[in-house]
Write a structure and sequence with these properties.
Blueprint lengths: L1 H56 L2 H10 L5 H34 L6 H26 L4 H25 L4 H25 L9 H4 L3 H36 L5 H19 L3 H20 L3 H28 L1 H9 L5 H14 L2 H10 L3 H23 L6 H26 L2
Helix pairs in contact: 1-3, 1-4, 1-5, 1-6, 1-8, 1-9, 1-10, 2-4, 2-8, 2-10, 3-4, 3-8, 4-6, 5-6, 8-9, 8-15, 9-13, 10-11, 10-14, 11-13, 13-16, 14-15, 14-16, 15-16
């Protein structure tokens, strides 16, 4: 089991490095092609997109990974029991997007140019849901190679499309370019799903008995998915209201162009740069979930404790040098990667706080794996409340987008320390 965990982590780490590089290249090309204004518009609608993706999946992929890893159920029956629920959720969301797009763009985001981009999300979310369900099967089976290959193919497809087609859409205007960036996900998710399907066992036989939903399986899944969805929903709602709060409270003292530009710098340049080591912690957390789920079912608490300490130590080992470099010389990375000097001060302030952010992903996976997803939900709720209140309070103090920096820092501190407290409690360190 230990060798399998290490192998899974190494595969995910290599894949994470490759996808991180590809992701950075995609962001660099996007930033150069659409500029600060276009990037700011894209970042304004990104919280809405993330919220819809969270709702469309309803935490089912995580539940599937955990339940499959326990090796106690008929996996085909488990998946087919949950598919009708996912289909219903996606249909309802598509209807809601069509109805609410004008309200979100004009009344909430105060930017009518975002309307068609938000509307286009209705076409994308079913494809992200299908891809997530396919990935969950392989995570549960601790087969990480299909996930890694599908991720790389997905990013390559996205990169090729952006390079070849953005110049064609640019003359039409930025709002159409941003809409195109959302719609690209349809093709990239299809490519990713096709790769995953190639890795499925060739001798799978599906019978009518497999297609009949199992109420016990649905109930087991919902026990995991509901807290997980609530957690993501809370975080996504907070993220969703972030640009709304900023535009509402800052417009009295700053122009919309200034707010959009600075928000784009923080969300598009600073945050991705600071979270650069996250591919490593994500690899650890993804490998931890099925392993710890299995260990916890078999009551191997000592083994779990060792893996928890190792995961946190490795996350900090990678995060600390990056943090030091970003504090000393953020200008080098901003110039090299994005060809900009904007965001230097923001980076220096957030970099040391994000040391705590690096261990959030492993801590979250541990809580999910031991069946304590409700603690993740509470930690997210507390962090989101603190972040939202901080954002509102500091946005009234005429300190510009530094109100957002303070709010992000407060969120990270509260969420991480709550998760640490709960992991220690449940595993009785």
């Amino acid at each position: 089991m230990k060798e399998k965990f290490i192998k899974s982590t190494i595969i995910l780490l290599i894949g994470g490095i490759l996808t991180k590089i590809l992701g950075m290249i995609i962001k660099i090309i996007m930033a150069r092609e659409i500029g600060s204004e276009g990037l700011g518009t894209y970042m304004l609608i990104l919280p809405t997109f993330m919220l819809l993706i969270s709702l469309s999946q309803f935490g089912i992929p995580l539940a599937l990974s955990k339940l499959i890893s326990e090796n106690k159920r008929n996996n085909k029956k488990l998946i087919f029991s949950l598919l009708p629920l996912l289909i219903l959720i996606n249909i309802l969301l598509i209807i809601l997007i069509v109805l609410l797009s004008p309200i979100i763009s004009i009344k909430l985001l105060h930017n009518k140019d975002t309307y068609i981009s938000i509307l286009s999300m209705a076409l994308v979310i079913p494809f992200t849901t299908i891809s997530a369900v396919c990935r969950s099967y392989f995570f549960g089976k601790e087969k990480m190679l299909p996930h890694v290959i599908s991720n790389i193919v997905e990013d390559l497809v996205r990169l090729i499309i952006i390079i070849t087609l953005i110049p064609i859409f640019k003359p039409l205007g930025l709002k159409y370019v941003v809409c195109f960036l959302i719609l690209i996900n349809i093709i990239s998710e299809i490519a990713s799903t096709l790769i995953l399907l190639l890795f499925l066992p060739k001798n799978i036989k599906i019978t009518k008995k497999d297609l009949k939903p199992n109420k016990i399986y649905i109930k087991d899944s919902l026990k995991i998915s509901i807290p997980n969805t609530a957690s993501k929903l809370i975080g996504s709602i907070g993220f969703f209201f972030e640009p709304i709060i900023l535009t509402t409270f800052l417009l009295n003292n700053y122009s919309l162009d200034f707010i959009t530009k600075e928000y784009g710098i923080i969300s598009g340049f600073v945050i991705p740069l600071i979270l650069l080591p996250s591919f490593f912690t994500l690899a650890i957390s993804q490998a931890l979930l099925p392993v710890i789920s299995n260990d916890y079912v078999n009551k191997n608490i000592k083994t779990i404790k060792r893996k928890v300490k190792l995961a946190i130590a490795l996350s900090l080992l990678i995060g600390l040098p990056v943090t030091i470099i970003l504090i000393i010389n953020p200008n080098f990375f901003l110039n090299t990667i994005y060809h900009t000097n904007e965001g230097i001060t923001y980076t220096r302030i957030l970099a040391p706080i994000c040391l705590l952010q690096y261990i959030q992903s492993p801590l979250s996976s541990i809580l999910d794996a031991i069946g304590k997803s409700q603690d993740n939900m509470i930690s997210t709720l507390l962090g989101t409340i603190v972040r939202t209140l901080s954002l509102i309070i500091f946005s009234t103090l005429k300190i510009g987008l530094y109100s957002l920096i303070i709010a992000i820092a407060m969120n990270i501190i509260v969420t991480t320390f709550y998760q640490i407290k709960k992991v220690r409690k449940h595993l009785t360190f």
